[in-house]
Design goal:
Elements: H1 6-20, H2 24-28, H3 32-53
């Protein structure tokens, strides 16, 4: 079992919370794989929106 480093955990949680407005309590119920899946889904959505709008997303880095 992999223990997620605190910095990575907070980064994932902040990214998801920013986009979905989920609470830290809700986010802490997710395991690492679930958080990474949501991070990837959000990133995919951001890339699609950026392609259509021609803009940039400062939080898009995954």
């Amino acid at each position: 079992m992999r223990v997620t480093p605190a910095g990575e955990l907070y980064e994932e949680m902040a990214f998801i919370a920013y986009h979905f407005h989920w609470s830290s309590r809700e986010l802490m119920t997710l395991d690492h794989a679930e958080r990474r899946t949501w991070v990837e889904e959000i990133s995919t959505i951001n890339r699609r929106l950026d392609a259509n709008a021609g803009g940039s997303r400062p939080l898009e880095h995954y």
